[in-house]
Design a protein that fits this description.
heterodimer; A: 0% strand; B: mainly alpha; two-stranded antiparallel sheet; 12 helices; 9 strands
Chain lengths: 147, 273
Amino acid sequence: MRRSLAAAFALCLSAGSAHAQESIKLDVVNDALPKSLTGAPGNPDAGKKVFLTRTLGNCLACHQVTSLKSEEFHGEFGPSLDGVAGRYSEAQLRLIVADPKRIFTDTVMPAFFKNDGLSRVRPEFVGKSILSAAQVEDVVAYLKTLN
Amino acid sequence: MRSRYVGLAVAIVAVASLATPAFAQETERKGVSAPRGHVFKTIISGYQFRSKETRALQDDDLENPGFLAVERAADVWKKAEGSKGKSCMSCHGEAETSMKGVGAATPKWDDKLKRPVNIEQRINICRTEHMKAEPWKFKSQELTDMTTFVRYQSHGMPAAVKTDGPMSSWFERGKQIYYTRYGQLDLACESCHERNNGKFMRADFLSQGQTNGFPTYRLRDQRLVPLHERFEGCMFDVRAEPFKPLSDEFLALELYVAWRGIGLPVETPSVRN
């Protein structure tokens, strides 16, 4: 069963870009997001792509991952994500990707699943989150392989 | 790409001191001591963050492509334009003497306009009011050349912008903008240039975002880039709607960032990647 948020989000997407999207609401429980944003598990291979792609996650802009050594240019803003699956539960990782400021106050890491409360967003991105619900699930599935 | 590896060696030194206070990495590069109460302990030019090759290009007056602009504008300085038949020289004489120090102290307060004015704006005020000539467009080669030429007359002089008196509200506005997170990526100037200078953001090696080298010759663009275009680029990259060049917002920001670089020698025309 799809959760109401995911359903609302999907509806917005299909409504097209002419309409302002509803603001995303996250069901945070104990500093974590226990439920999948799509109702389904993500795909780690797709997640790796999102992680690396500059116009999507671009996570390597700020993080290092030893198993991705063949990729050029690992950033240094954030910690290495080696072993991150051992440090956080899936539910915690989901919130860290969706809205890290709820956990790391004042972090420079962007919220990847948030579409309001931002300042002077370029028109083409207004009302949109950086990643879709499915892309967040894919990235979380990929992070779970980093143990 | 080569530049990345040159910087990497420096960065590794910085990483070794990860647990030490935020600006420990500054001591690895040459800079000037900041006055008390400043945000940095050491104020460092963007020059120090660039590769050996890029720095060598800046240091060689014959090879530095920015000097072509200085030469072009030196001719335009003497050329009469507009219905009054005047040139810059008609009012200011030799730029080497009359413009010395100007570029180190801008933006400057204008008593008549009751606002700070930067070099681009001053040039266009002179053109429209004193020469009765058309103002030059922002980003035009003419305006960027002349801005470079004027600023070059302060080459090596320490940045010494005034921020008190009537400037203080502009300074505060600039500071507020500097610390505000903008765009879908929700990042402030501070996120990159204060907290993370000396670190890589993927292939980009972050400096303190100082303004002492502007207009700067960007190898990527193969031309001189004026300061407000750099501000626009930084905002655009975080997916923000940039303020307009020469807007009050960018002027306030220019003033505030100039203060963050107080004491740095003017490097115009600098070379950056």
